[in-house]
Design goal:
255 residues; mainly alpha; two-stranded antiparallel ribbon; two-stranded antiparallel sheet; globular
Length: 255
């Protein structure tokens, strides 16, 4: 940090780009740190509880800063105290992102024991329920990429497109929620998402999924691989759904 501070903040070198006028906290870094710590713990062990402590910290932040029970919403960016900042950036929700974070929490409950960690299941299911309610397109089906928490306009011009990865994450989230709760609504949601995804994103001739659809579900282009549309979300979704439904056994870990 000192090196970067010397480069960027020393007078005469480069002025800082931040003003401190709208400080905030971000959901994305918490969920990525959460799943990274889970993977590290799985394969490296956790004798001193280091990774579990990071997992607990990330989950607590998600629960206390980004979940807003009063309006049933998961915020992507909030003020340091968790309150909503009335600005384009902080009002913007990413339903697929929230659902992805939710199944990371469900996986933690599965790891620790569902019977003794119902609070984690409750948190994750709220994130899934609220995100599907706010993100599922009532007119054309599929998950909208961005929505505004108050129903206002969204700054990003691709906000009403249907990207591949939110549907992959929603398939995993609803699958695991059903397995862990037995609630039929998650089986119904899973089938609804699966049907929409494979009828709009799947290439019936050459396989794989297209990356991007217009709001009405028509392919925006034929792109299947790019800097962003990579070999990640889709294989992970297929593997995890098969795994959680029992078709693939628990993987062997090496400590």
């Amino acid at each position: 940090f000192d090196i970067f501070a010397d480069i960027f903040f020393t007078p005469g070198k480069m002025a800082p780009k931040t003003t401190g006028k709208r400080p905030g906290e971000n959901l994305g870094c918490r969920m990525i740190m959460l799943v990274t710590a889970q993977e590290m713990r799985k394969y490296l062990g956790d004798a001193d509880g280091f990774y579990t402590a990071w997992i607990d910290r990330c989950i607590k932040d998600l629960q206390t800063l980004f979940l807003h029970e009063d309006i049933k919403a998961v915020l992507e960016n909030v003020a340091p105290d968790g309150s909503i900042i009335d600005h384009f950036d902080e009002r913007t929700q990413n339903p697929g992102h929230a659902i992805e974070g939710a199944w990371f929490i469900l996986e933690e409950a599965r790891y620790r024991g569902a019977e003794t960690h119902k609070d984690l299941i409750d948190t994750a299911c709220k994130m899934i329920d609220w995100s599907l309610e706010r993100g599922w397109d009532p007119k054309f089906g599929g998950l909208l990429y961005y929505t505004d928490v108050f129903g206002g306009p969204v700054q990003e011009y691709w906000h009403n497109m249907k990207f591949w990865w939110p549907h992959d994450e929603a398939l995993i989230g609803t699958c695991l929620a059903y397995v862990m709760t037995g609630d039929e609504k998650y089986a119904e949601w899973h089938e609804r998402i699966r049907e929409w995804s494979f009828s709009h994103l799947q290439d019936p001739e050459h396989g794989e999924w297209f990356g991007y659809c217009e709001r009405d579900g028509s392919p925006a282009n034929g792109l299947k691989g790019s800097m962003w549309k990579s070999f990640f979300h889709h294989p992970r979704a297929l593997w995890n759904c098969a795994h959680y439904f029992g078709a693939i056994p628990e993987p062997t870990t090496h400590h």
